[in-house]
Design a protein that fits this description.
Strand order of the largest sheet: 1-8-5-6
Distance between the termini: 19 Å
Number of strands: 8
Strand content: 25-35%
Helix content: 25-40%
Radius of gyration: 16 Å
Order of helices and strands: EEHEEEEHEEHH
Length: 179
């Protein structure tokens, strides 16, 4: 189920969802897209804000599987990455504080603090400048669909066995209750 779509121009953008739109009724309040360099790699960072104050808000959006998909002009998926969530960030933060590192993911802190639970982040391995004439789709998905996508990429030879295993571990660590 697509929660929001945004046409990108290769530059940072912020979109607030209008009341009455299908995206607003799905629980999305806004989307912020920006570029960052993480571990020496240019990334497009997608942040969604969820409207937890809506009477009909689905709390499963807070930690259920969501993906950011970047599509080219003909609709081909160029990049797809899962969003993080509060429980996952708290686990990453606890590991960081204890000096362990088991969970795979990016931990973003603002002034040493975790983002609020109604903020979710995804990190697309594409420089923001390369998003000219693309469309960002924020989609609700399932763990089975995510794993199937990785397996299809592996079957096509798009990812190695090690990359496949790493992505499947990351998916199952984000959503252990859904596997």
């Amino acid at each position: 189920m697509t929660l929001a779509t945004i046409d990108l121009s290769g530059r940072p953008t912020q979109v607030m969802i209008e009341d009455g739109s299908s995206s607003a009724s799905s629980g999305v309040l806004g989307v912020d897209v920006t570029g960052r360099v993480l571990d020496g790699e240019a990334q497009t960072v997608v942040q969604i804000l969820l409207d937890t104050d809506r009477a009909d808000f689905d709390p499963a959006l807070l930690d259920g599987p969501l993906v950011a998909e970047l599509r080219d002009g003909v609709g081909t998926v160029v990049a797809r990455e899962p969003f993080d969530h509060d429980r996952f960030r708290r686990q990453l933060h606890a590991e960081r504080e204890s000096g362990t590192s088991v969970t795979r993911g990016v931990l973003v802190l603002t002034d040493g603090e975790l983002p609020p639970p109604w903020v979710r982040l995804a990190f697309l391995p594409v420089p923001i400048a390369a998003t000219i004439a693309t469309t960002l789709a924020v989609r609700r998905t399932t763990v089975a669909e995510l794993v199937d996508g990785v397996d299809q990429a592996y079957a096509r030879g798009d990812v190695t066995d090690n990359e496949r295993q790493a992505v499947i571990v990351a998916i199952t660590q984000r959503h252990p209750d859904a596997t």
